[in-house]
Write a structure and sequence with these properties.
The chain contains 12 helices and no strands. The protein is an all-alpha fold. It starts with a helix and ends in a 5-residue tail after the last helix. Residues 1-8, 14-24 and 214-237 have low confidence and may be disordered.
Length: 244
């Protein structure tokens, strides 16, 4: 518990939840979380995010595009956050189709790195990257934190699975909590990165991953490491003008 309290408050619920609630996305066939009308409206709404941001305007314009009345946006009680969450869910589910590993000899750690970079690259390819700070702001609202953390947890689990991690010991939890913290920190960093092809973000990720001495194996001091990285993250973001 002492180690968890060293982590920034927004990350603590994830670590506490991960310590008691296992998640195996690959053990169960998951039904689509969206009905057809919801999927059509949200998908169309995302196409307007580069122009209008994660806003009601993007949502209502998307609804009109696919032939629904503006009032149909009442299907989404959380408003623009529904666009954010839909994007997170669909990008997580689509990650397995975005990357193919060239060799079975490629280690788990290298695969984790490639998967994280591919997921971050999706923010650029989809056109939402310039608007992602708006998404982060919506995710940080109290009423949206539980759903945001669930998606972060599920993404971390998906990445470990796609990387070929088969461990079922106690490290299952700590690896996922650690990777969730790394991904969240790197994604925030990416929103302030002005380097060509987000090279600085890639180097930032490599420094964070280097803190894990053996990616994909048991790590006795993982929670201590996460606490250290959490403090470093806060200082870094503040130095870049990001309000914490």
């Amino acid at each position: 518990m002492r180690n968890i309290l060293r982590v920034p408050p927004t990350i603590r619920p994830l670590l506490l939840h991960a310590s008691r609630a296992p998640y195996h996305s690959y053990e169960h066939v998951q039904p689509s979380p969206y009905r057809e009308a919801e999927r059509e409206i949200l998908s169309a709404g995302l196409t307007h995010v580069p122009t209008h941001g994660f806003t009601h305007e993007a949502l209502t314009t998307g609804a009109k595009d696919v032939g629904y009345l503006e009032v149909s946006t009442n299907l989404f009680p959380k408003g623009p956050f529904e666009l954010v969450n839909y994007y997170l869910v669909t990008q997580r589910l689509g990650l397995k189709d975005r990357i193919q590993f060239p060799s079975e000899k490629m280690g788990v750690g290298a695969r984790v790195r490639s998967l994280v970079l591919e997921r971050l690259r999706a923010n650029v390819d989809s056109g939402v990257q310039p608007r992602w700070q708006e998404a982060l702001a919506l995710m940080s609202l109290a009423e949206n934190i539980p759903a945001s953390l669930r998606e972060l947890r599920d993404l971390s689990d998906e990445i470990w699975f796609l990387a070929g991690d088969t461990a079922v010991d106690s490290s299952w939890y700590t690896k996922r909590a650690s990777l969730a913290g790394i991904y969240a920190a790197t994604e925030v960093y990416q929103t302030t990165d002005q380097s060509a092809d987000f090279r600085d973000t890639e180097e930032f990720l490599d420094r964070r991953l280097e803190g894990l001495r053996t990616v994909g194996s048991a790590m006795g001091n993982t929670m201590e490491w996460v606490g250290f990285q959490g403090g470093a993250l806060v200082n870094l973001l503040r130095s870049k003008g990001v309000r914490i």
